[in-house]
Amino acid sequence: MSKVFGRYAAIIATVVVFLTLVLGVLGLNFYTSFQTEVTAEAVNIAGRQRMLSQRTAKSLSNLNYKFYTQDDLSIDIAELKAASALFDRSLKAFTNGGETNSTKGGAAFLEQVTSDRGREILSQANELWGPFYDRLSTMVDLAERSSLPISGQRQLSGLIADNVSYANSNINQILKLMNDLTNYQEGQATASADTSRLIQTLGIIASLVCFAIILFLIFGQLQRADRKALLAQRETRKIFETVDQGLFLIDRDFNMGSQQSKELERIFSSGFLAGKNLHTFISDIVSSTDLEKVLRYVRLLFDPHKKQKLLQDLNPLKKLPIQVQDQGELTSKYLRFSFSRVENNGKIEGVLASVSDISNEIRLENELIEETKRSEKQLEMISVLLSADANMLPEFIKSSDRTYEKINQIFRNPARNSSEFKIKADSVLTLVHATKGESSLLGLTIISETCHEIEDKIDQLKLKNDIGGDDFLSLTILLDRLISTNEQMKSVMSAVAGHSQSPQTIDSGETQNLIKLATDVSRRQHKEVAFSTGGFDMPHLAPDLRKNILSLASQLVRNAISHGIESSDIRKTLGKSEQGSVKLCLLQENSGKLILSCEDDGAGINFESIKLEASKNGLIKAEDIDRVSSKQLLQLMLKNRLSTRTAADADAGRGAGLSVLGSISDQLGARVSLQTRQGVGAKFIISIPKTAPEMATKKLTEASYA
Amino acid sequence: MHRLMIVDDSKLIRQRIAREYDADTFELIGTAENGADAIDLFEQSSPDVVTMDLTMPKLDGIDCIEQLISRDPSTKILVISALNDTSIGIEALEKGAMGFITKPFSGADLKAALKEIIDD
Questions:
Q1: What is the pLDDT of residues A522-543, one digit of tens each?
Q2: Which of B54, B76, B85, B86 to substitute to test the interface with A, most A CBs within 10 Å?
Q3: Inter-chain contact B100–A293, Cβ cutoff 8 Å?
Q4: How far apart are CA B90 and CA B95, in angstroms?
Q5: Are residues A616 and A532 in the same domain?
């Protein structure tokens, strides 16, 4: 308030002066008009004095005449008396100030004449009139008596003669003096009128000057205010053009304000958003459920009882993925909206929304997570290396090195057409899948996950129509990663070789690895599984054979958990115990034959969907579909990739699992049989002859996947 | 002294809150393990501050907030929930809750949140 007063102080002061002047001129006008009336009356009375002096002289002359003709004197006496008395009264009023009869009837007050000239006229007039009036009064008194004796008659005659003679010699002088008085009064009136006119003129000029000053000040003020506003506007615009956040205001009706930062347009690659309703704006970038959530949230921001700090925690748009058209290309971005109240005197007037593009932050965050994961896996790998069965690791590295070399060969001779590619892709898939199985058996997650990534990429490539050399690039990068992992393992192993125990002791390493595999797979699949295993401590088995048996075992376990065991929710609704059971067992018959069995209490094998899948892939003809036996189907599954799972993950879903099982069994001359009941479970039994073909591993990698 | 009621279906959490609140400012008038019990206790003891879990048997937290506020709109309710979902937070505030913290929480978190809602 005082600030406002300060800014307008000059204007206010000038207005006060202006009003004072206007009031002064008005007051003066009023006073002057009153004064003019008084002066005009004085002029009139002075004029009347001239007339009265003449009337006095005339009635005296009539009286003189009638006295000698002995006529009635009363009328002239009354006339003389009235005229002289009024003349005397008025002259006294001029001389001393006082009342006399007004020319308009009633009384009039006359100011005492004070100027030298006026007093001179009046004193001369009084000198002549004073004795005359006394004699006239004596004469009138005598004349009024009803009966005069002769002596009285004589005395009256003398008095009349005396007065007439006085009048004859002086009345003209009196008349002249009264004339002077009248002129003098008129002069006074003119002078005072001139003065007041001058004062009025000056007052009006001063008021006009004041008024001009007021206008000047107001215009100046307006101009300054305009300049300031313009400057502020320019600054705001500059800020809005350069700020690296999308800024806009939202009012209570959810309308977006007219001022918005340039960045907002850049972020949304769209033109003018001003004046749009928040509802329309947000509905373009979020789902309808989120839209409702955002609007409810903004509504809460306008509720003064809700704490802003708390509301910040509940902001539903902290990280919003969006798709925008950028120069014709659809790109995805992550945005962060933040909202803060705009308050004025404690009242919430609006909400300021700021939008920032946090895509880079999110990308870095994700990269960091990836990096952390990778280093965790590397650490895990080292711990695996340190604890793993020292016999198996070199085996694994050796065979996987050979596998990678094979894959490399395939990449080096890319396919010329898509059918060729599909054949090559399948070979790579089988090779990679085997490595995945072996590595996950050993707990080498870093390898099994990379294998899984390769499988994913190949699956995606297979869907494409034309495949070029570039498409292999991402695969070779992943393969390089696998190869360098092997190199790392080798160097770690040689570094720790000095510290390691004798590798020949056979302990329950295999059993432990299998338990770990089962635990890992069930965790990844979010299933609860009781896993039991036994019979794997068979120190006398040849390393190659043992490795193959373990490959079979790991495929069986993964199949059982991923395909067989249902999620605990489903099991509950089926009336089964929430925890599924998988039993893996290896035993040697007296004949030396090895029996590997894996039994689960899961969903069993749905031969109907296998049939459908097989006929879809052209493995069985539509007309044979009803005739094909479950044994034949099992053989199909062991020889081909068949999967009824809709999505592949690190554990299963591509159908390669059973085909790996099939090819290893072939190499070992083993027989696979299956007992299953839908909804109850499945049991795979693999009988392996004791004298499995020699160099099984070598043949496995070279022959069966070629 | 504010009269505090603790509503949570987990005994551990109830004990935890009872151990952590600021005894100079609050007086514990009782605890309830579901929404329905909370309403009964509220009617008997009329607390002015309530800590409220959201997922509970019988009557869930959101409905419970609504009922408590309809009985006394000045009740200050602090939601303590494991649901880290903004929609549920927004809904709780809409129904009249004053504060929101998520489990797990620290003693300092709880004290600060309780102080915040009574300072309002």
A1: 888 888 898 888 888 776 777 7
A2: B86
A3: no
A4: 9
A5: yes
